[in-house]
Structure formats: C-alpha cells, structure tokens
Amino acid sequence: MKHNIQQETTQWASATTPNHVYIFEGTVGARTAKAIGYVRAGTTHVQRFRVPMVMDTRGRTFVPLK
C-alpha cells in the first residue's frame, strides 16, 4: 500500500490549535482517511499509531508533501 504524506492546512477558530503532518495509507477521501502516523507540529519525530486511525476529514484541508 502506498503511503500518502500530507500537511494539514486547516484554519482553526482557535489560533493555538496546531496543524500536523499526517501519514495516510492510500488516498485521503472526501469524508475519511486512514492515518498510520503523524509528525507533531514543530518537530521531526514520526509517531506511528499502533492501529491505523480512521480520521474524519470533513472541514479539514490538506496539501500533499513531496
């Protein structure tokens, strides 16, 4: 399965809510995506999830990283 690395670009109502980089399995759909890990904002450490997490992507925006 191909991994898809994307930077979240959501404009949150709270200015203190950070946007992280997410690693998805497959493609990001209109409603959901399966995240297998993320990189916390301001760090370079990849944190993998023990079990892939299905994220609700409605209202969130992402741009692919190369």
TL;DR?
The chain is mostly beta strands and 66 residues long. The protein has strands at residues 3-8, 21-25, 32-39, 46-56, 62-64. The chain is globular, with a radius of gyration of 11 Å.
Write out key terms for the chains shown.
mainly beta, five-stranded antiparallel beta sheet, 5 strands
What does this structure look like?
This protein has a five-stranded antiparallel beta sheet with strand order 4-3-2-1-5, with no helix packed on it. It has one domain. The protein is mostly beta strands. The mean pLDDT is 93. Strand 2 and strand 3 form a beta hairpin. It is built from no helices and five strands.
Helix-strand layout with pairing:
Blueprint: E1 3-8, E2 21-25, E3 32-39, E4 46-56, E5 62-64
Antiparallel strand pairs: 1-2, 1-5, 2-3, 3-4
Proportion of residues in extended strands: over 45%
For the sheet with most strands, the description reads: 5 strands, antiparallel
SSE run? EEEEE
Give start-end ranges of low-pLDDT stretches. none
Number of helices: 0
